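Exercise 7. Given the encoded structure of a 504-residue chain, write a plausible sequence.
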């Protein structure tokens, strides 16, 4: 039996009958050690510069009535979502059934009840589980093989494995009514399937998310913490650069590449310096109820805001210098949700509700009469100009599900861009005009006209010329994740928000 004592940043593993080697904290995890008896020693390292975990483990197997492997773990209670991209170092290992993945265990005993989402060396991908201590391991095999994206979620006594080859949507397996107790060990593992061999796995984009309790269906119910993330388009590498225990939303990348602009749950606007990784308040005068529909002008000098004014019907559009100042009111009635500037800076495009219908409107950036650009029944939202000024991209439910559309700046030639099984929102065109990213909700999770927070969503990528969209990021988020343009000026990265309860 072990006891764990935290001291000076370490977890000291103390046996009642003596001392074991200490277990050092590894990244976000409390400790690591070999599970099972007489296991060839493994190791675990966290590389902070790349936010990667390098884990080496041996052991006869993770199967039957007992397990042997290297485990990097932390103790947790309640519901959680575990996410990573994983791969072996050298896919031509010794044993075809060597294993990498996530594991949830009742204890650190080798015979413990557990649930694990695992990828084998030969590509076999499965949800494995041992219901009670010493019981024989069972499994649900995925129809997908060679997954490198692994997610395992606990919701009460239900465990859901979601796996994918990076770039593709998840394939899901679910296990119900398995009770591991309130407090469990949660972590990454590597097993070699050979007691004399040590295999190594690399895990990146590792995230442990504490989801919302119950349902959150709008902006006012957004209470979870936020991760500000940056992703490389070419590699899909993600980096969490800032996290807070409250809601921040919709980062815009400034034209000089040095900052991100986002709104906080307090209704204020912040400039996040990428060098110092610290935010500072942007002066928006008396306009202090800002939502996540804020946009930077193409020349980088101005910031457009959407801020609630109850007596005018809701969200009203303002403009202010990018460095702050006294905002100028643009729209006279609400709700009006800003989403784009014209490249020449002369016009703004927004989603407005007028007489019970939400449509796309255009209005001069200096103020003036608004022009209605869409009139289809149902929601048209998220308008944004292409950098060449030839099109306005937007999302519409007119075809049934929410899909991406585009039209000429005068509202003519409206044509559908995406046509798939997802609800697609907020197309953002890269500064070089070659590609777009957009947010995709699963149709079984949301109604076509809704974009709530705290859902399993994808950020997807597609060339501007069309083609099959690729999943760039698998995110717990939704509302506030990527509502407005967030490309880096060199078109190589995007910024976005993911969510988790940081108070647990």
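Solution.
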């Amino acid at each position: 039996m072990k006891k764990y004592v935290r001291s000076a940043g370490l977890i000291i593993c103390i046996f009642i009958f003596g001392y074991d080697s200490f277990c050092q904290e590894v990244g976000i995890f409390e400790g690591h050690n070999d599970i099972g008896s007489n296991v060839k020693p493994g190791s675990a390292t966290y590389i902070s510069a790349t936010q990667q975990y390098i884990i080496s483990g041996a052991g006869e197997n993770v199967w039957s009535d007992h397990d042997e492997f290297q485990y990097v773990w932390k103790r947790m209670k309640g519901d959680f979502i575990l996410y990573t991209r994983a791969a072996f170092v050298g896919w031509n290992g010794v044993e075809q059934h060597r294993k990498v993945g996530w594991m949830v265990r009742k204890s650190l005993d080798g015979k413990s009840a557990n649930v694990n989402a695992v990828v084998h060396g030969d590509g076999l991908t499965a949800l494995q589980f041992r219901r009670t201590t010493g019981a024989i391991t069972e499994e649900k095999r995925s129809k997908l093989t060679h997954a490198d994206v692994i997610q395992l979620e606990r919701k009460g006594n239900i465990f859901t494995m979601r796996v994918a080859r990076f770039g593709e949507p998840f394939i899901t397996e679910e296990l119900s009514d398995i009770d591991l107790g309130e407090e469990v060990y949660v972590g990454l593992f590597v097993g070699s399937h050979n007691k004399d061999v040590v295999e190594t796995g690399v895990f990146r984009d590792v995230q442990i998310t504490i989801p919302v309790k119950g349902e959150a269906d709008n902006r006012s119910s957004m209470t979870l913490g936020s991760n500000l993330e940056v992703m490389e388009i070419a590699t899909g590498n993600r980096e969490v650069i800032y996290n807070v225990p409250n809601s921040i939303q919709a980062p815009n990348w400034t034209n000089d590449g040095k900052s991100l602009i986002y709104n906080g749950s307090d209704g204020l606007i912040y400039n996040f310096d990428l060098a110092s990784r610290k935010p500072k308040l942007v002066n928006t005068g008396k306009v202090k109820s800002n939502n996540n529909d804020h946009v930077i002008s193409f020349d980088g000098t101005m910031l457009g805001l959407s801020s609630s004014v109850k007596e005018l019907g809701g969200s009203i559009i303002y403009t202010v210098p990018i460095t702050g100042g006294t905002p100028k009111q643009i729209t006279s009635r609400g709700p009006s949700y800003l989403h784009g500037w014209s490249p020449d800076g002369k016009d703004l495009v927004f989603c407005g509700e007028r007489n019970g219908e939400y449509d796309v409107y255009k209005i001069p950036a200096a103020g003036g009469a608004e022009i209605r650009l869409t009139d289809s029944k149902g929601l048209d939202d998220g308008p944004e100009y292409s950098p060449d000024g030839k099109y306005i991209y937007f999302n519409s439910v007119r075809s049934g599900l929410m899909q991406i559309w585009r039209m000429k700046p005068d509202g003519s030639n409206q044509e559908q861009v995406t046509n798939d099984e997802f609800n697609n929102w907020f197309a953002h065109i890269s500064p070089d005009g070659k590609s777009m990213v957009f947010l995709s909700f699963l149709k079984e999770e949301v109604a076509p006209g809704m974009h709530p927070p705290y859902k399993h969503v994808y950020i997807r990528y597609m060339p501007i010329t069309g083609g099959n969209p690729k999943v760039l990021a698998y995110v717990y988020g939704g509302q506030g994740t990527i509502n407005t343009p967030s490309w880096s000026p060199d078109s190589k990265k995007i910024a976005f928000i993911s969510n988790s309860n940081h108070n647990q």
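Remark. DSSP finds no helices and 43 strands in the chain. Students should compare their own answers with the one above.
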